[in-house]
Design brief:
The chain is 11% helix and 44% strand. It has 263 residues and is mostly beta strands. It has a nine-stranded mixed barrel. The longest helix is centred in the middle third of the chain and has 11 residues, at 106-116.
Length: 263
């Protein structure tokens, strides 16, 4: 595969992005244990500085599917896993973090890792249906086009009964006691270091989100029989197939300079 990494330029914060998103949520107890094969890409799983940085506390798990129509590096698709809260060393408290994330282009991979310590990797996204509205199915594959087995599948469906739309914002989350900040530990460097760059700092990232129109939908996490991880039928070990999700339309995200934590 050709290496085009020399063409990638850093685009520093702040970023303003516009997107459509589906956010599936559920709670897990710390007693259940964090499934490393699900929570991490192998590169990050092999790094004690990342995968063992702070005690996992369980909490609210979020699986996010996004399609960005406008960003400083162009449009792209994204899948994010935030598996709950982690203690941050140094007495900074407990924060959520992104432990696994895939995107559809290289520019955002490099810049996400460099600017905010977000462990982005490239994947192929394939769809049955239109991402802009349910029903549809998304499948994620490794970047290598010769691999035809997805490592993640999700289907979005409307609820069977009518529900009203409502505005959604990061201020709404704060009222629920969910902070709009996340803390990312240092990242390991990948083989292609010009794309999978590493970091040596702890980043506290705070963003603002606003969607004028949000609705509840179903996220179906049942994985196909032919899949990369055959052990977990509904992707998260022991997890249920159907999860309530929030569908965010016409969403705006602003993500500024991170705060560098002194650890």
């Amino acid at each position: 595969m050709a290496n085009n990494s020399t063409q990638i330029q850093r685009v520093p914060p702040p970023w303003t992005c516009h997107y459509t998103a589906y956010i599936g949520t559920f709670y897990v107890s710390a007693k259940s244990g964090l499934p490393r094969d699900v929570a991490y890409e192998p590169l990050e799983a092999s790094s004690a500085e990342f995968a063992e940085a702070g005690v996992w506390k369980g909490g609210l798990v979020m699986i996010q599917l996004l399609r960005y129509s406008s960003t400083p590096v162009g449009p792209y698709d994204e899948m994010i896993l935030l598996p709950g809260n982690f203690d941050v060393p140094g007495g900074y408290g407990s924060y959520t973090r992104i432990t696994r994330i895939y995107v559809s282009q290289r520019e955002t991979t490099y810049n996400g890792r460099r600017n905010w310590g977000i462990p982005k990797h490239i994947a192929r996204f394939e769809y049955d249906g239109d991402f802009s509205a349910p029903p549809f199915t998304v499948r994620l594959y490794p970047e290598d086009p010769s691999i035809d087995t997805p490592f993640f599948t999700a289907s979005l469906q409307h609820l069977r009964f009518w529900t009203p739309s409502f505005p959604f914002s990061s201020n709404f989350l704060k009222r629920l006691g969910i902070p709009n900040a996340m803390v990312q530990p240092p990242l390991p460097e990948g083989e292609d270091k010009d794309i999978l760059c590493g970091t040596d700092k702890w980043f506290k990232n705070t963003g603002t989100i606003y969607s004028p129109k949000a609705k509840l939908v179903w996220m179906d996490l049942k994985q196909p029989e032919k899949r990369a991880n055959a052990e977990n039928e509904n992707w998260w070990p022991g997890g249920k197939r159907w999860r309530l999700a929030v569908w965010l339309q016409d969403t705006r995200l602003t993500l500024g300079e991170p705060e560098i934590l002194k650890l």
